[in-house]
What we know:
The protein is of the alpha+beta class. The protein has helices at residues 21-28, 44-63, 77-83, 85-88, 111-121, 167-187, 244-252, 290-295, 318-328, 356-371, 385-395, 405-410, 428-436; strands at residues 32-36, 39-42, 67-68, 74-76, 94-97, 103-106, 130-139, 154-164, 192-196, 206-213, 219-223, 255-257, 274-288, 298-300, 306-308, 310-317, 330-331, 334-335, 346-350, 376-379, 399-403, 412-417, 424-427. It has 2 domains: 3-335, BirA Bifunctional Protein, domain 2, CATH 3.30.930; 346-436, Anticodon-binding domain (Rossmann fold, 3-Layer(aba) Sandwich). It is built from 13 helices and 23 strands. The strands form 6 sheets. Strands 3, 7, 8, 9, 10, 11, 12, 13 and 16 form a 9-stranded mixed beta sheet that branches. A 5-stranded mixed beta sheet has the order 20-19-21-22-23, with helices on both faces. It has a 3-stranded antiparallel beta sheet with strand order 4-6-5. It is globular, with a radius of gyration of 24 Å. The protein binds one RNA strand through strand 8, strand 13, strand 16, helix 9 and helix 11.
Amino acid sequence: MRRSRYFLPTLRENPAEAQIASHRLMLRAGMIRQSSAGIYSWLPLGLRVLSRIEQVVREEMDAAGCQEILMPAIQPAELWEESGRYQDYGKEMLRITDRHERPMLFGPTHEEVVTDIFRGAVRSYRDLPQNLYQIQWKFRDELRPRFGIMRGREFYMKDNYSFDIDHAGAVRSYNRMFVAYLRTFARLGLTSIPMQAESGAIGGDLSHEFIVLADTGESAVYCDPAWLDTDPLALAIDYEDDLQPVVDEWTRLYAATDDKHDPSTCPLAEDALYRGRGIEVGHIFYFGTKYSKAMGATVTDPEGNDVAVEMGSYGIGVSRLVGAIIEASHDEAGIVWPESSAPFAVGLINLRAGDAACDEACESLYARLTDAGIEVLYDDRDERAGVKFAEMELIGLPWQVAVGPRGVAAGTAELKARAGGEAEALPFDTVLARLTGD
RNA sequence: CGGGGUGUGGCGCAGCCAGGUAGCGCAUCUGCUUUGGGAGCAGAGGGUCGCCGGUUCAAAUCCGGCCACCCCGACCA
Length: 438
């Protein structure tokens, strides 16, 4: 993509309303624009990041045996009357009335809809287990939206729902999701820690929330320092195996948010404890037959009895992850994208646009990188070097390639990792080889 | 929902107390100079001062009502 044609409205100054780093940087980097309180438009750069994160989530869901569907954003209130949540949910639910005076709502979650789909389609235990997911915009009319995208009213979420014939099956489904979540966050370059959680409005008796570590996170966390050295991706996972030992291993270490942490019962000594801050990015629940009983989602078991299916639901805040990654990875100059969620892999800077030799060298690099399947943002504008460097730091692409008259004369370009380190002057072919991994 | 605050050009702000020509920096446009880390000079464009009403010869400024947004707390992917 040529910067001269790219819709990237960056801001030089900090918007007054943005308090935390991710909000400020997303506005400055031209990723989002606010529409109303807690509701945002996603501009090209932001949407690229959102889509990349979404894709990682999708791949891990598919790998864990889930199937993607898409349910309606607008739901009939009727279904929520059946589950009994229409009254319970309160003002966070955006209620809508259609032209026939039929009460509708903008979905804050989809247990009712998915249960309705299930009960109309599945009759036999032979069709279980089943695990359906969607990635979709949801709406919760938060009392006080804040922190930009981190706590918006409209938010992009992956939610999935498991259906099993019995408790043991449901726990297997739960464990699969537990592992898939650890893998997903690790792939995004985040350290996530599962913590025992309350089930809240969804209900149920088995629940973990996944907290991502970030210095500017909203809640304080206390955990065993061993968490910091764990790598979920190091473990080869077969989702057909019994994952209980894996989950046990992962939940063995101490971890608690500040509202749960109690120094008097904590197994670790005060000075052996890691204290940090974190952001909740995922939450998983096993809630058994709460919805299946209320809504009549039953199947016939091997003995010919009708039994209510055992369910669980699992959420990942996809749009929140954009903010969480920035909170976990930024510096004074701007965002520092991990490769797995970066909007472009490489930022190519022409330090002297209009200079024939620089233009030619850049065009060549741009074409060869693009041909190699690498996504490049090529700053071909007639701007001063400082402007281009500053913007490139702000938007945080993992690799910067700077081409100027000095280097071109010597047949080199400068390669620099956004995450740190000095720029290295390297022959064009070497730069290419480094970036393409050849 | 309780408490606090702010609405003035795209962004950041001053002006309001003591009513009288809407102003500054950044950004934008034009020209010249410049050209390896958010350039310099000269010029230009752009604002129903959140909305409605009131007071007044005169309202960004005073008064009343409404709306929006932000922050702190209690609550959440």
